[in-house]
Batch of 2 targets.
Target 1
Amino acid sequence: MTILVTGGLGYIGSHTVVELLKNNFQVIIVDDLSNSEKFILDSIEKVAGKRPVFFPFDLKRKELLSQVFDAYQIDGCINFAAYKAVGESQEKPLDYYENNLFSLINILQEFKVRNISNFIFSSSCTVYGQADEQPIDENTPLKTPESSYGKTKQMGEEILKDFATAHQRKVSLLRYFNPIGAHPTALLGELPIGVPNNLVPYVTQTASGIREKLNIWGNDYETEDGTAVRDYIYVVDLAKAHVKALQKLIASNEDTVIDIYNLGTGKGSSVLEVVEAFETANDVKVPYQICERRAGDITIAYANADKAEKELGWKAETSLEEALRTTWEWQKYLESRNS
Ligand code: UFG
């Protein structure tokens, strides 16, 4: 079967493309390279032994997208292409709504007229906001996210539910917790542009001396050590969940399917625990200082991922230390490329 992977050269996208290729799917990538680099395509080929078809364009360009659907018999889509910086989305909300929602709608229009089903959407635990109870399962009530980025994820989910219902299609909404780590070959990983916002890329760059010290945003939260708690999920485990979710949609005999899964480990780790795990896993030091809380941060979020285990036969397998070891190997690879 042939799967369109939008954003397939990005962080989670590239790892998922490798897993799809390993499972004998044909892959067509559309990626505008706005937050990825062309060399990732070569890396995918090295890791998977196959080179996916690649088109570099912006999904808002409907006519180009239509040509891809004309040229290939597409059986499904995994839609990673989206802007994802929480802070930036507050400064440029229209760009976020335009990019994340128009591109989604353009693909769905093609799905509609060509009678294609099987759509997987990258959603986020951000749709739960600060949940009243932990762990968070799929029935935990959604809250309005603080950021425009988060709102595009919630709106994307609603668009897909309406689409599946009105046109009898199969969709899967995957709510990621905090993805971390890199491919065990160290050929694929996250490529943060500029100063990283996310914890693990910042920790990594601090350990390597690119950043002087890590700023820990707050140690006065109501958690065991006072720092905020998240559920850090290894990116290869996350990638594998996409293949399972896709296989389930394809195998389903129902006309309309709306699957929703939390993808996390089920275990919360504090910022200080992540720092310590990174230091232990890699035998390096991560200098840090405690700062004021970051605006918009929640205290705690970790998943109940039992539904994915029961229905997809998937669960996170990789430890925090192991994931952080791959991150460090990836950082060393990036530095060797630059030297
Ligand atoms: N943190 C620091 N210092 C840093 C970076 C982060 O202390 O330099 C802390 C944050 O305050 C937070 C934790 O590390 O407590 C994790 O922060 P991240 O930015 O890595 O991740 P978030 O949980 O804030 O954001 C993630 C995704 C978003 C998504 C959000 C939903 O990156 O895409 O979860 O809650 F919207």
Note: The chain has a mean pLDDT of 97.
Target 2
Amino acid sequence: MLPVQTLSHPGHQAATSGTIKAFRVCGVPVRLHFTFILLVVFIFVSVLGSAQSSSTYAIFLLGSLVSVLLHELGHALVASRFGIRTTEIVMFPIGGLSRMDRPLPPTAEICVALAGPLVNLLLATGIFCYMISTHEAAVIKIADLLHPNNKSPLALLLFGNILLAGFNLLPAFPMDGGRILRALLSYIRPEEEATRTAAWMGRMLAISMGLYGLLSPQFMLVFFALFIYLGAAQESVAALGRSLTHGIPIRAAMITEFHTLEHHSTIRDAANLLLSTSQQDFPVIHGNQIVGLLGRNLLIRAIASDGPDAYVAGSMDRDFLALEPSADLAEVLPLMAQAGRCALVMENGQLRGLLTTDNLSEFLLLRRFGMEPVV
Ligand code: ZN
């Protein structure tokens, strides 16, 4: 599910916030989102409150997670055929999300999006064949698949994989079907409009699903609906941002008037600059080399831990994000998504400007009101 379009700067693969790294599969890091814990709690409560055997649940749960992971690896494998790298797979309670290292052209997006549900259909076929070979299928009627009985974890998994494939093919963001719809629409309409349509479908799907969940009542559906709504809204905002910045170089949005600190400046000097200017992030230089970046949060932490007379060199961030002034702004947007982020804009080792989330949002606002960038 959800091959989010992002581009990360080499060496600066900003991981999705709110996640912890769990393991690697085929060289792709797999991270767990903190909401994943909600799923674990939900399952735990369900097991306690149900008469079903916990071993059936355990097998089904494990099988489902493996199915979701294989679905994501399907996306990653096909993406790699198009020369696109998957930077991470994030596991959410309602499924996975594969982040690619750059935006996908429409044809690649269709193939990559189809690969996930295809994996689930193959898994379902495999399970079905296995059940036939062991005669288990003979005792499971179609009705049991629609209302899976609790006796066979394999039947539950078969049903689960068909559901995963079907659900992901719904033509609405952030489902894979929404990506296919967007890619198909983008052949005939501008990308932003195609994304808006797919995202609108996602919101409509979420609202209908949420209402049905509330009325039936099935609260798991409401929970799913919330995630779909948030995913669709996020995608809309990202698409708008992309369309407002596409083809514009970073130099058009960067801050060109700023203060720097020397590596032997003290935390007191930095605090004085923080108070006397509106700047929050200070590049640290040594001779004519940029050696680090001291942001507001690091500065406050340094005052508390090291005191005002310590050198900034001891507290600055040496692993800062550096961008080229000619790079496409649309491609660095995902890197700047983290609040309070600051990147240094550098050309041939020389500092040309700063790019912060604050000036980037001002730039987006001005673009939205039709202001043309000065390139
Ligand atoms: Zn998918």
Note: The chain has twelve helices and eleven strands.
